[in-house]
């Protein structure tokens, strides 16, 4: 088994806090263990060179067997929450995972019959850790009120999100466990402990293998005691261990990674661990966690895979074909109940994610805005046989679009115009140009088409306001669709009457990815 060596100084951004951290990393890893490194760190290697919840009944909570999704809301034009809830129900999705406790979303989920996991962001851990009253107030506001008055079926509370990422430099080491304890105590006091369970979604680098096989798994040495305290607490409260695993990152991080090992349809050089055969990186990663739990006295602890998925754009390996291959393979394992060598049976997991989010930070990579099973407007990206037997995803209904018009480069504009470069730069800084790049969905556009794509992206995100298509002597509004092949020039949906949350309004394109686009733009001019 060959080893891979990473030695780099990385600047990493966490998806929920958008805080930058610099650190040194030296890691020796076998292929199977690549996705055990924290996801955010591996994702950011790019700047150097669906959620389906498949939850089963757990020992702690009586859950229905069904399909669920992570519902993220970092979009400039989020679909109305009621539309999203109908989308979930039309596709037989019975569970949803949220990253906060947004009241608009929770109200939309009332009496829907959909089971919910609400989230507590990392920036709330300090106050919850230092005040039991703060925890009780949070539970009263975000759990009790919805469960009792609007019948929202809340089953889990995710306390933080990947709080032990090395890139946080220990920022949450002292607050995560106390916050978890206080939230659990508040849930008990509210009389909800038999219904609502706590968990902490962990990044996959909280465990590791000092050997080349999953059976050598154990928790990371620098947080070993803390992890055991948390695991014991979760076990005592009959709560699950949640972990995020991304096989895509294994392939994204290393061009020599064997591509078939990232999927579920067989790999000729499977890993043999004392008779247990691993033909894909996910099962090897998952069983490394199982081994870590067994080694420390928790052989039967429930596990939820908090995040797993495959993006469809923004990278040469992020495409519809690979995403369908991965998602269908994962779903098939869930339906068949095959599980892993150390944990036979259906996998309990969330596929990331439901809908594309065009306002997400792309510091980890341009693919960050393309994890959805559905496009921004609720259209399914590919055929997918769900666990309920349907062979295709059902699109969102009654989606309202803006006018069928596009902002494009004027036919009379010259590519030598000195205003082109700053205009394209401004457009991409304030919109989404992540589909422009090498071997992406719009990577084959010529120079004029590249410019038109940038202009139109800005124009659509700005709600087709006339002033947003007034690049000096360069742009015109056209009623002829400029889409080319698989590259779609979008028409944006109408703004939702109810903004999901404030972060949906913030959109800035990263400088690194903008430079990448400009490089391709310049090449197209040659």
**CATH fold assignment of the largest domain:** TIM Barrel
Principal-axis shape = globular
The tally of structural domains comes to 2
Second CATH tier, the architecture of the largest domain: Alpha-Beta Barrel
Q: What is the strand arrangement across the widest sheet?
A: 3-4-5-6-7
Helix content: 25-40%
H/E series, N to C? Answer: EEHEHEHEHHEHEEEEHEHEEHEHEEHHEH
Kindly estimate the percentage of residues that lie in beta strands according to DSSP. 15-25%
Number of strands: 17
Question: End-to-end distance, in Å?
Answer: 43 Å
Low-confidence residue ranges: 1-62, 499-513
Number of helices: 13
Chain-averaged pLDDT? 85
Q: What is the CATH class of the largest domain?
A: Alpha Beta
Description:
With 526 residues, this protein is α/β, with parallel strands linked by helices. It folds into two domains: 367 residues, Glycosidases (TIM Barrel, Alpha-Beta Barrel); 120 residues, no CATH class. Helices cover 29% and strands 16% of the residues. A hairpin with a 7-residue loop joins strand 9 and strand 10. Helix 5 crosses helix 6 and helix 11 packs across helix 12. The radius of gyration is 23 Å and the shape is globular. The N terminus is likely disordered.
